[in-house]
Design brief:
- By secondary structure, the protein is of the alpha/beta class.
- The chain has two domains: 73 residues; 169 residues, 3-Layer(aba) Sandwich (Rossmann fold), CATH 3.40.50.620.
- It has nine helices and five strands; from the N terminus they run H-H-H-H-E-H-E-H-E-H-E-H-E-H.
- The protein is elongated and about 80 Å long.
- The N and C termini lie far apart (84 Å).
Length: 289
């Protein structure tokens, strides 16, 4: 009798645990979908970072449905369960390690380090594009970058600004043109603003911006760049591949897209490590196409 009661209690506890686990997964899945669509409202268009929470959310909801249909765990063998958790744990460890690098790098290799080393005479600042809206105005994240560039420009007279960004598939004009207009409208001298309007990646931002600077008289020395905080590490790496001694000025990232951009940057970093290298030749001019 006692054995039966103990068995019933164990079965009841397992059933409660099963449904609580399902409920938690369903809440996480719904949150992922909501987050993606909320972030899309302030972005120029869909990209991997915006899609990942939605895809993860859809997967979790599908997983819950399968569990409910089976009435039990999907992976039942203990050995497979351990292997699955091991893979998840290793993946999480790699992801978190990369995020630590992305978060701390702007603190270790920013413009303040250049100034402390006595290199505050750098007069070139590259603003990296990251999307404009259908009416040609900067996205929220890009406006933060431009405002940060203007702060530096006002505090450091003589700074030359490079507005760097090509035209995306859903954009009415090159980002560099929109960025230059914003800079001038908000106080920068038109003579101090240079447009690079054909880059389609961070690698090309630096490749073509270097050409613009050289054509405008830059003969070497440290340069600065402005991008959002999550992007500083990879941007600095790609600047170095273009032969630039570059220091980042991090702009804040809107909270509503922070999860998305750090997710995207995780994959973008590995892509850049593998395939983003300087081409042997660039015969075309670097200005607006």
């Amino acid at each position: 009798m006692k054995a039966n009661q103990s068995g019933e209690k164990a079965k009841s506890a397992a059933g409660i645990e099963f449904h609580v686990y399902n409920a938690a997964l369903a809440v996480l899945g719904a949150a992922g979908l909501i987050q993606s669509f909320s972030a899309h409202r302030v972005s120029a268009g869909w990209d991997l970072g915006l899609l990942l929470p939605a895809l993860g959310g859809a997967f979790l909801l599908l997983w819950v449905v399968i569990r409910l249909l089976l009435g039990s765990r999907v992976i039942r063998r203990p050995g497979l369960q351990k292997s699955a958790w091991l893979v998840i744990g290793l993946g999480a460890a790699v992801f978190l390690s990369v995020q630590v690098v992305l978060v701390t790098d702007p603190l270790l290799h920013g413009a303040e380090r250049l100034e402390k080393a006595g290199g505050s005479g750098a007069v070139w600042l590259i603003v990296l594009g990251c999307g404009i809206t259908a009416d040609g105005s900067p996205t929220w994240a890009l406006a933060n970058r431009l405002d940060k560039a203007l702060e530096w420009y006002r505090d450091h007279p003589g700074t030359q600004l490079v507005a760097s960004g090509g035209r995306g598939a859903n954009e009415p004009e090159p980002e560099g043109v929109s960025m230059a207009r914003y800079l001038v409208e908000n106080g920068a001298s038109e003579a101090d603003v240079h447009v690079e309007g054909r880059s389609t990646s961070t690698m090309e931002n630096f490749l073509y911006s270097r050409t613009v600077m050289e054509e405008a008289g830059w003969s070497g020395g440290p340069v600065l760049f402005v991008t959002n905080d999550f992007h500083v590490f990879r941007a600095r790496m790609l600047a170095a591949r273009n032969g630039l001694d570059a220091y980042g000025i991090p702009a804040s990232t809107p909270a509503v897209i922070r999860l998305n951009v750090y997710l995207r940057e995780f994959f973008a970093l590995f892509k850049s490590l593998l395939v983003d290298w300087v081409p042997e030749a660039d015969p075309e001019p670097a200005g607006v196409q």
